[in-house]
Amino acid sequence: MRKGILTIAAVGLLTTGGLTACSDDSGNGSADSKKTPKIGVILPDSKSSPRWETADRRFLEEAFKAAGVQYDIQNAQNDKSAFQTIADQMITSGVTALMIVNLDSGTGKAVLDKAKSQGVATIDYDRLTLGGSAQYYVSFDNETVGKLQGEGLAKCLTEKGAKNPVVAYLNGSPTDNNATLFKAGYDSVLKPKFDSKEYTKGPDDAVPGWDGPTAATIFEQQLTATKGKIDGVLAANDTLGNAAISILKKNKLNGKVPVTGQDASVEGLQNILAGDQCVTVYKAVREEAKAAADLAIALAKGEKKDTGQTVKDGDRDVPSVLLTPKAIYKDNVKDVIADGYATKEQVCTGAYAKFCAEAGIS
Ligand code: BGC
Fold this sequence. Notes:
Pfam families: Peripla_BP_4 (PF13407)
Radius of gyration: 21 Å
Mean pLDDT: 92
Low-confidence stretches: 1-32
Keywords: Signal
Largest sheet: 8 strands, mixed
Number of helices: 12
CATH architecture of the largest domain: 3-Layer(aba) Sandwich
Bound molecules: beta-D-glucopyranose
CATH class of the largest domain: Alpha Beta
CATH superfamily of the largest domain: Response regulator
Distance between the termini: 42 Å
Protein name: D-xylose-binding periplasmic protein
Organism: Micromonospora saelicesensis
GO molecular function: carbohydrate binding
Number of strands: 15
Strand content: 15-25%
């Protein structure tokens, strides 16, 4: 699926200094260099993950302010028609670059194509728009995210001494290309174990819109359908993981059944410290926001940057920046705090203070 070289070794190591700038004489969708740069960003929602409002907005603002460019960051709140309206308003208001986190590839493509036709530069931020026309794609290596989830679940099942465990899947939204990539990643670890009968494949469901309450309903049904015989849960992010944990708690199974996640949300980190969640995947959103902001600013000035890497979308090679994710267990929750992604004050509240002390968070 991916083409090109993955040179980025670790989270936090990518600097956009590695991107080479050159002037764009193609005139193809790039902004007019005489215009004052103004970047529009459309975030998808604020419920599927707290990251969009607490991390992405914060770090994008930080990057735009540092560069001294004008910006407008809005959130479509999971509403596809609002998404299109926001895009139209941003284009009318004269943004020179538009960055989107699509709600699905269809609406994403419509927005990107319209922006392109008006000479507005475009970036797919975090989610690739399939069949789209964005000039760049900035994200993490999402198959590796899934691989870390699969490996994390296997590690925790081994630690629990599980024998032929039944593993249930709570996949991300079927309209999110990332969910497909995450699944390819965890399947690469778990499918061989199902095939060799080391593990047993349990229920496998996608959660529309990455919605937490829907995930809880689905997981409750999975537990009923298997007569309570689920030994591990591959949940694609912390929101879905927390939904599963809430149902496990109701059944006094929390802590016994390892659950995965993603995003290093405060809730996810607390669930890990309490022993209810096995692993989360930390993605240094500050780096992602900075890389995307640098590209958006360059595009807005009519420059082109070479990212040194591309991702295939059908026949199209999309110039991409893909950062490296990191697995987080109880013993390295402190790394997320040291990185400034979450604070000790947020994570170590009330009953969690004791767990923080045990995990060496001082
Ligand atoms: C993002 C995840 C996020 C999920 C739900 C995905 O596209 O990569 O970080 O948890 O969407 O918002």
